[in-house]
Amino acid sequence: MADETSLNNQSKTKPKVGDGTPGPGRPKGAQNKTTLALKDMILKALDDAGGVSYLSDQASKNPAAFLTLVGKVLPMQVTGEGGGPVAIEIRRVIQDPQAS
Description:
Elements: H1 2-12, H2 33-49, H3 52-61, H4 63-73
């Protein structure tokens, strides 16, 4: 009976790092070091290539590749102000050409 009680107490204790049980791992959403290093290298190369002006040139010269990149960096779900739905307002403004 004493053995059974000691087994129950052991199962309730928290596992410790290094005792053969897996640790908590990376926090949710955290990238590993290799991914972060690669991202930093890509951003540095983009900066060296001209940054925004380079991307603008690529949009004209290689639209398929550019749009693939845009699709990768856009959020998967777009929300409006305060997390609500996106509000689209369409206005038709008629100006009198003689008023200017």
